[in-house]
Design brief:
Blueprint: H1 2-18, H2 20-26, E1 32-34, E2 43-44, E3 55-57, E4 66-67, E5 79-81, E6 101-103, E7 125-129, E8 148-152, E9 171-175, E10 196-200, H3 209-215, E11 221-223, E12 231-232, E13 244-246, E14 255-256, E15 265-267, H4 276-285, E16 293-295
Parallel strand pairs: 1-3, 2-4, 3-5, 5-6, 7-8, 8-9, 9-10, 10-11, 11-13, 12-14, 13-15, 15-16
Amino acid sequence: MSLILYNIRILIHSLILFHLPYILQRFGNVRELNLDDCQYLTRIHDVSNLPNLEIFSFKSCKNLIEIHESVGFLNKLQILNASSCSKLRSFPAMKSASLRILELAYCRSLKTFPEILGEMKNITSISLMKTSIEKLPVSFQNLMGLQNFFIEGNVLQRLPISIFRMPNLSKITFYRCIFPKLDDKWSSMVSTSPTDIQLVKCNLSDEILPIVVMWSANVELLNLSENNFTILPECIKHCHFLWSLRLDDCKCLREIRGIPPNLKHLSAIRCKSLTSSSKNMLLNQVLFCLLFSLYLT
């Protein structure tokens, strides 16, 4: 019976997809369109005849390879879910000012983030898990309402300097990312927005880390766990707002040259290469911090 139901479902999907362009022309007032798990869907057709569309989902369409540019110009669109479209390589430019949710996670073949044409103030969170995105466009800064940005498992080749100046961006998380090479412009850049920066297992080196610290003028929570740097630079003492610092599993870390003046919590679990003098510096900090907690092995 289950096999029969499965075959019926496949037949219905096939019929719908065959007639989809005609269906889209006939139902101009539709507000929600769900094409999830359509295994035979290879292309999203022109949807300009659906001006009232608010929710559009085509997640887990494993064979989808093309999306018509009209998807990015739906004026009333609020939710766009394209997650787990594993063969999708590119995404059209977006100019939907009403958009609140954009899901692109697990689009494993997606190499570029869509261009953002004009200010979009309603998207507060972007999560890019397990994509192949190599660069973020300069127009990423047009996501003016973005508060939380999470990216995992990407090989970044370009990171726009403007990302750390976005007015509402308070939390940045890079997890298991290969951090990009940074040009000279980054050396003089000071971040004014993020208060929570998580750069975990990002292959941060001694060359990059001082630049990262300089971004962190207003940071309060900084997580640098599972990275490869050997020295925590002296310039970190200029992070006057930093009260929580995590260095767990930084197995190459040997030396700590500076301590933020208002630090209350430091975790350095399994930092096996840390020298005795650095440990003593950290232990002395306890005298000045009432709520200080330190873990060393």
